[in-house]
Amino acid sequence: MKKTLLLCLLALMVVGVPLFAAGVQESAAPKEVYFLNFKPEIADVYESKIAPVFEQETGIKLKVVTAASGTYAQTLKSELAKSNPPVIFQTNGPVGLKDSLAYTADLRGTEFYKILSDKSMALGEGDQVLAIPYAVEGYGIIYNDAIMRAYFALPNKAVKINSADEINNFATLKAVVEDMQKNKAALGIQGVFASTSMAAGNAWRWETHLVNVPIYWELREKNIPFGEKTRNFDFTYSAQMKNIFDLYLNNSTTAKGLLGAKSVDDAMAEFALGQAAMVQNGNWGASQILGVKGNKVADKDIKFMPIYTGVKGEEKIGLCVGTENYLCINKQVSAEQQKLGDQFLTWLFSSPSGKAFVKNDLMFITPFNTFADNELPTDPLAKDVIRWMNKDGVTSLSWDFSIIPSKEWKNQMAAALGDYIAGRKSWNEVAAHGADVWKREFDLTN
Amino acid sequence: MQKSIQKYAALFVLPALTCFVIAFLVPMIMGVVLSFFRFTTVLDGHFIGMENYRRIFIDREFTNALIFNIRFTLISVVTINLGAFALALLLTAGIKGTNVFRTIFFMPNLIGGIVLGWIWNLIINGVLYSKGMTVVSDPKYGFWGLVVLMNWQNIGYMMVIYIAGIQNIPVELIEAAKIDGAGQGTLLKSVIIPSIAPSITICTFLTLTSGFRLFDQNLALTAGDPGKQTEMLALNIFNTFYGRTGFEGVGQAKAVLFTILVALIALTQLAFSRKREEEAA
What pLDDT is stored for residue A3 in this prediction? Predict the structure, then answer.
């Protein structure tokens, strides 16, 4: 009896081993590139538009998997451990790259690296090139110029300026916004700013993007160059962040208590439907405005203004421009598959049909030398980012949030901001918490 | 015949054993081993000893989740069992249409946790909307929301177990008690409850462990908001593992502690009830 059991167990092990081994061998499948996409808002473009054309032109299959919003890191982690791991995946900057060093291939020899115009934009370790940016993005306060014009035409307006272009500091912005909120019935809006979305996974517009503004000013004041990490973040400009955050909260479409259930989609829909005049977001949000059913905003009325917070000299700032979109190739897949990955990326960003998708459907402002001026995206937000980047006398703010020590810091910040909205924390406590957790997280991750 | 069964016994055990090994034994051993490693994906890492266990307590997250979870479990174990027992008594009293009601009360149990979470999220937000609040505005809403949800889902299931227990009490016993002059209160206290002690054990055990293992309901109803204040152990482990760079091993270490905790509670509870049953018998 015991012998039989033993035999069976042995048999199980013998049967089991080739079974698992076969799973590993399978990764050398026929020509297929597996791309783990980061951006849910354009997942459909990859799947239904790009994949079929790519296969038609090159005979290579494109498998696209998209992680749900806010879950990329965990999806990537489990996908990488599978027997058929992604060939191309994304990282969000130096901090994210550190987490996937065991998987990032050196891209120096690839065609994809060759087409990058400014080689200094790529990320690496030593002389290796490990991650290449593919989209430059900008964010600020998006406004609906039609509503702004309606406001400036009001006979009882309380400000002296006559167009949104003239807003160039926080004081003016505040005066305009508060007066607009008073006249919201006349303007046909529910509030000036769209909901300050605080639902789980939807607070990144504040804990990453808005917080970039105080980080930027503090680092420049301390003469810390862009991209250099620091252990000491004192939140010197927290009062300025409070200025704008309070403005968002107090002149919103939504009561404070309800913000915990609002998503970014909700906020973008409010803007698209004309219920709000302004929303803080970036040019990636274009598809969320233009694609909303019943969209009431005309293309020509969608414009950007910088995030003014009340810092001295902010009349000369532009939008926050940078990237957290870098692509990596998995070095743990076969050399052949790595090559196919390179082939796909090069195809997408340099072949005529690939570039057409990038311009019209993905709407990326790319950093590649394969794009001529007339091949830049034409959606209103991307165009406005380009306009601000080239505006005379204006400096774009860099994306200094890439040095935030960890995702945990952002989570803590989101929680603290939530507590502030609910009245459980004062702003000083929020700022102190931000500074403390920064040190702790820096020590844990460095 | 007997002999040939013995001969093939091992063969018949094989499919179940295979599943058990692949889906339970291997992951569990891997899990314990990985809690001593620093790793990104589960197949490569390096040994760092007890570091992960030390890191669990660098902040109060785990302790807070534990306290929240204990409070939640204590309250829901009591309310679920009282509710289920009361319903069981009601539905064995011989009222018309009891079968329909049994089915209705059991139905919430057939809905998955995520769906339940979303349904209650809508209901609670709908109620709180008039006050300009949502379920994540204040941790106490999340707490009571979870208690209500858990009750709604589990009372029906526990009720079935209690009904089975009550129906198993010999009619003679109850009749004899009545003849001896036992009133409703005495009947309940001295006959029914002692007779269904095994059911009470099972139900307490089930609700206790499911209270600690709660995950999808927690995720769908509040996702731990506001600021991790309604985060229970299982969700905290998940968020540590997937949400924090370099904390995969810490998540794993938390999972090991969690397993030990749940096992300890369950074993204590079981030993305690067994003893009581033996005394009663």
Answer: 56
Same domain, A132 and A180: no
Domains detected in chain B: 2-51 (no CATH), 58-280 (1.10.3720.10)
Q: Are residue A280 and residue A356 in the same domain, yes or no?
A: no
**B-chain residues within 8 Å CB-CB of A433?**
none
Query: Is the per-residue pLDDT at B183 higher than 80?
Result: yes
Q: For tokens 């679920």, what's the residue?
A: B80
The contacts of residue A300 (CB under 8 Å, 6+ apart) are A145, A380
Is residue A54 in some structural domain?
yes
The nearest CA of chain B is from the CA of A102 a distance in Å of 9
The sign one gets for the Cα dihedral B235, B238, B242, B243 is positive
Within a domain: A88: yes
Query: Cβ distance B245 to A98 under 8 Å?
Result: yes
The model's pLDDT over A196-245, given as tens digits with 9 standing for 90+, comes to 999 888 999 999 999 999 999 999 999 988 778 889 999 999 999 999 99
- Please tell me the pTM assigned to this model: 0.80
Q: Which residues contact A159 (CB under 8 A, 6 or more apart)?
A: A172, A175, A176, A179
Greatest alpha-carbon pair distance for chain B in Å reads 73
Q: Which of A307, A339, A371 is the last residue of a domain?
A: A371
Dist. CA B218–CA B146, nearest whole Å: 7
- Which residues sit opposite A91 in a β-bridge? A326
What is the distance between the terminal CA atoms of chain B, rounded to a whole angstrom?
Answer: 38
For residue A47, give the CATH number of its domain: 3.40.190.10
pLDDT bracket for residue B42 (50, 70, 90): confident
ipTM: 0.79
Of A77, A359, A373, nearest to B39 by C-alpha is: A77
Q: Which residue of B has its CA nearest to A445?
A: B246
Domain count, chain A: 2
- Who contacts A136 (Cβ-Cβ below 8 Å, separation ≥6)? A321, A322, A323, A364, A365, A366, A367
Q: In Å, how far is B243's CA from the nearest CA of chain A?
A: 7
* A386 inside domain: no
Report yes or no on A228 lying in a domain.
yes
- Kindly determine whether residue B133 and residue A257, on different chains, have CB atoms separated by under 8 Å: yes
In terms of residue numbers, what domain contains A220?
138-321+391-445
pLDDT, tens digit (0-9, with 9 covering 90-100), for A243-294: 999 999 999 999 998 998 899 999 999 999 999 999 999 998 888 888 788 8
Q: Mutating which of A91, A330, A408 best tests the B interface, going by the most B Cβ atoms within 10 A?
A: A408
Residue of chain B whose alpha carbon sits nearest to that of A258: B133
A132 and A143 share one domain: no
